[in-house]
Write a structure and sequence with these properties.
- It contains four helices and nine strands.
- It has 245 residues and is α+β, with helices and mostly antiparallel strands.
- The chain folds into two domains: 98 residues, FAD/NAD(P)-binding domain; 138 residues, Glutaredoxin.
- Strands 5-9-8-6-7 form a five-stranded mixed β-sheet, with no helix packed on it. The chain has a two-stranded antiparallel sheet with strand order 1-4. The protein has a two-stranded antiparallel ribbon with strand order 2-3.
- A hairpin with a 2-residue loop joins strand 2 and strand 3.
- Helix 1 runs antiparallel to helix 2.
- The longest helix is centred in the N-terminal third of the chain and has 30 residues.
């Protein structure tokens, strides 16, 4: 396996096999490359639209190079396990596929959880609880099971909360943000809200695929957490705005 020393140098950013090469276990090379290109695309879009400085592009290396190392190491490990076996084992990949989807960014364009408990310890295991820096897990947003958290993935930011928040007036310099109320989502804190960051390239429609498996992750990352009472939602959004690195 090989992983680049850096994924960004001046005007050049590396993605795909230029950034990391690994054994072809469970198509991880392709999937990791797609995730990296996805990460880079929305940050470049924010820069080109004047919504962010180049500091946001620095977070591409901060977030994706550790993900490349983790995936390459795991792919090499499981490939060796396959080669060491005398007979194929179709269940060997199951835990790894879940863990690959549970990788957590511990630094980058994120904000830590706001509240007395702070952030839980970082994890490299699949733990679909909506940690900051992880993919938002599938949860139904309504009692009738017609709308999922997966549906929130799109080109803009989104807030997910149990509360019926008033419409957010635009302020100078504030990014556009959609607010979604969840009728039946198990938040750790009843007053909690979750901020999701952009996940689609410019011009793409928001993801609309609803999964029936509760542990299925999406491509949307949790950007931050906060408590609603006593706080200003705009302050949370501004803190985690595109220029944050």
């Amino acid at each position: 396996m090989r992983v680049a020393d850096t994924c960004r140098a001046g005007p050049v950013s590396l993605a795909g096999d230029a950034a990391h090469v690994m054994p072809p276990f469970a198509a991880n090379g392709a999937n990791t490359g797609i995730a990296g290109a996805h990460n880079l695309a929305w940050k470049l879009a924010a820069l080109l639209r004047g919504q962010a400085s180049e500091a946001l592009l620095d977070s591409y290396d901060t977030e994706r190079r550790p993900a490349g190392w983790f995936t390459a190491d795991q792919s090499t490990h499981y490939t060796q396990q396959i080669l060491d076996r005398s007979a194929p084992d179709p269940t060997l990949a199951h835990p790894y596929v879940l863990d690959a989807g549970g990788f957590q960014y511990t630094a980058g364009a994120l904000i830590p959880r706001v509240g007395p408990d702070g952030d839980p310890e970082p994890t490299t295991r699949f733990d679909p609880c909506g940690r900051v820096g992880t993919r938002i897990p599938h949860r139904w947003l309504d009692v009738g099971h017609t709308r999922s958290t997966i549906d929130l993935a799109g080109p803009g930011r989104a807030i997910l909360t149990r509360h019926r928040l008033p419409s957010l007036p635009r302020r100078a310099g504030d990014p556009h943000i959609d607010v979604h109320q969840a009728d039946d989502v198990a938040f750790r804190d009843q007053d909690e809200l979750v901020l999701l960051r952009p996940t689609s390239s410019p011009g793409e429609e928001p993801a609309s695929t609803t999964h029936s498996t509760p542990c299925t992750p999406s491509s949307s990352q949790v950007s931050g957490h906060a408590d609603v009472p006593g706080g200003d939602v705009h302050d949370l959004v501004r803190t985690a705005g595109p220029s944050a690195a």
